Amino acid sequence: MLWGKNKSGLNAQQEGDVTLKEWATSKVESIDGLIENPGFQEQRFQKLGSTHYKTARVVFDRDEVLKKAPQNLKQIFEDLFMQIDYMELVINYYDL
């Protein structure tokens, strides 16, 4: 992850997200060089599963929206959901 490039062609160090000075006194050009450094501590890294993303993914819940919606909008939302379901069915039918 440290040496991967993002869409703009920069790695995490160039973006400023990670500073390698915490681990090494000299500039490290590769992961092998980092591992060979006597100050390298693998325990400081987090597992990928424990990574927290900056924005949480919000899942749209129709039932929750209908519970919170004012009475005059509930029928409009139900009609809209029915149209969405119909279009999704048509698209899936077309794919088949």
Helix and strand run = HHHH
Number of helices: 4
Class from helix and strand fractions: mainly alpha
Helix percent band = 40-55%
End-to-end separation:
39 Å
Structure description:
The chain has 4 helices and no strands. With 96 residues, the protein is an all-alpha fold. It has 2 domains: 1-45, no CATH class; 62-95. It is elongated, with a radius of gyration of 25 Å.
Per-chain topology:
Blueprint: H1 12-15, H2 31-36, H3 62-68, H4 71-95
Question: What key phrases describe this protein's structure?
Answer:
single chain; 96 residues; 0% strand; 4 helices
Short description:
Helix content is 44%, strand content 0%.
